[in-house]
Amino acid sequence: MTTFSTFHFLRRSLPIFLVFLIAINLYSCNSPRSNLVARLVIPTPSGPATFNYPLNQSAYHIFGYLYDGLINENGLTSQLEPALAESWEVSKDGKKIIFTLREGLKWSDGAPFTTDDIIFTYNGIYLNDKIPSSLKDILRVGISRKFPTVKKIDSRRVEFSVPEPFAPFIRFAGGLPILPAHILAESVSTLDSNGKPMFLSTWGTNTDPKKIVGNGKYRIASYTPNQRVVLEKNPYYWRKDAEGKSQPYIEQIVWQIIENTDNQLLNFRSGDLDTLEIQPEAFPLLKREEKRGKYTIYNGGPDSGTVFLAFNLNKARNAQDKPFVDPIKSRWFNTKEFRQAIAYGINRDAMTNNIYRGLGELLHSPIPAQSPFYLSPKDGLKVYNYDPEKAKKLLLSVGFKYNSEGQLLDAEGHKVRFTVLASAGKKVREQMVSQIKQDLGKLGIEIDAQYLSFNTYVEKLRLTRDWDTYLGGFTGGGVEPHGGYNVWSTKGTLHSFNQAPQPGEPPIKGWVVADWEQKIDDLYVQASQELDEAKRKKIYAQTQLITTEQVPFIYMVNPLTFEAVRDKVSGIKYSAIGGAFWNLYELKITE
After folding, report:
1. What is the CA angle 121-123-127, rounded to 5?
2. Long-range contacts: 323-329, Cβ < 8 Å, 24+?
3. N or C terminus of the chain with fewer C-beta within 10 Å?
4. What is the pTM of this model?
5. How far from chain centre, in Å, is Cα 568?
6. Which tens digits make up the pLDDT trace of 355-374?
7. Is the pLDDT reported for residue 4 higher than 70?
């Protein structure tokens, strides 16, 4: 699962974020040989779920290769830079932005790219009530929850406007991918037998890849399910270097689907892969082989994403009037002291030392430490250092008790036992679940582990809502906290701990929002309206104080981001936020 970041499409395309796995055959993963010199082979644990960007929910996708935004964010400095738009102008009151497109832009099929495509993308897709997308969560403005308006000035200029100040306005207006009107407009206006736009079934993974049209550095050459996606240089891409030579320089990207992290390691060591996210247990081995293997290990510091244990706080019932969560467990989960006790009962220091080999830092907040809006523990953020005695006292204070065998019981005598759901296959996550089970066992709590493949995992979380707790994470949303608003909006698509009814879903009954949930939502809206950075920081500090007090997510460990890249790739400017390939357009293969 992933929070939304307008600029980091490419980094999300690469396997340096939250891992979800699909079982495949190792033999089929051997990448096809090619005579192309400028060719980069990158592993991913999961193939694309869709080629339709607005409908995507997967952490693993190729949209960073296929699309550019109007503006871009520098992966090192987070500063805004021109992309499809050569310039932009913001009104004095901050409510209007006029973007001016570069001359001669084209889609990957050679068709002209104009402001008509921007108007179509926003008005026809992103702001269309009939098309469900998590993008709506972050595009709504202020208390009114109104959307921006988008108006064409001429073929190269477009005006975005908002009814009230909106601090992330320029990043969100300029950072989203623009989709081709000449290809997709008919699918948006044509309805199926159920009255839904045909767009909802357009550009699935069964589509001929050559029919997928973008405006980014690459276009899809071929797709072999459960094996690979091959991308080729887009001949119509706009970037040129100082000498007038077209970019990117790397002609082909092979996105190699390899389920298991151990198998990825084997393929990298054998030379079949050009890059690898380094798991903690593999770091000593790969570091020793760095010179002989002709690669460099880059360290970007703590990852900007989150890893957490989440509780299902949903009190609602499905269309068959069956509660999503067992009412007995629901009472536990909806007791703040119970959630806090679990947080104190998990030994995250041991996770850092044993599972991450010391290559990580304790995670305390949903906002990354790299962000100027991060509230540190020294500035008042509540932390949950391992303290099993404190955990037991909290449990006893709210009516839990122990039997003669040391098992934890609730006030009615029910044994405390619940399931931790996780995606299958990643060794680190499986080790984390094992330690959670061991640690909570010391509190008299019995934990069952359930591992599911990626698609089943996501379906269970988002659609069935039939789960107790889950171990998961959200990808880094950059330095702007509003990129995570779809997690904290009470009706957000990623508000997983208490998922609201979503458009197009069967009705659910009895869904309620806690006061603290609504408060966080309101504060995020308030922060988006505040243009003074110092005042925004204070507002986001309040959100972090509430989230750490209420602990719907128990944050675990923030691993250091290590990535090995072959030395034949020159121009790498690695960072935790941008990754190794944020500047892919200027990278070169030197052999």
Report:
1. 95
2. 324/464, 324/465, 324/466, 324/508, 325/465, 325/468, 326/468, 328/410, 328/412, 328/414, 329/418, 329/468
3. C
4. 0.75
5. 29
6. 998 989 999 999 988 888 99
7. no
In 3D space, the residue among 500, 506, 503, 418 whose CA is nearest the CA of residue 467 turns out to be 418
Give long-range contacts, CB 8 A cutoff, 24+ apart: 73-77.
73/6, 73/7, 73/8, 73/171, 73/175, 73/478, 74/578, 74/582, 75/8, 75/11, 75/573, 75/575, 75/577, 75/578, 75/579, 75/582, 75/583, 76/573, 76/575, 76/578, 76/582
Q: What is the pLDDT of residue 33?
A: 45
Other beta carbons less than 10 A from residue 529's beta carbon:
16
Q: Nearest to residue 216, comparing CAs of 98, 62, 86?
A: 62
300 phi and psi angles, rounded to 5 deg: -100, 10
Question: How many angstroms separate the most distant Cα atoms in the chain?
Answer: 79
- End-to-end CA, the chain: 37
Q: How do 446-452 and 417-423 pair as beta strands?
A: parallel
| d(C-alpha 27, C-alpha 501), whole Å | 42
Dihedral sign computed on CA atoms, order 394, 395, 401, 403 = negative
For residues 46 and 65, what is the distance between their CA atoms, to the nearest angstrom? 16
Strand partners, 297: 564
Which residue matches tokens 């939250």?
18
Long-range contacts of 98-104 (CB under 8 A, 24+ apart): 98/153, 98/157, 98/158, 98/159, 98/160, 99/70, 99/71, 99/157, 99/158, 99/160, 99/173, 99/174, 100/156, 100/157, 101/70, 101/155, 101/156, 101/157, 101/158, 102/238, 103/156, 104/238
Q: What are phi and psi of 375, to 5 degrees?
A: -100, 115
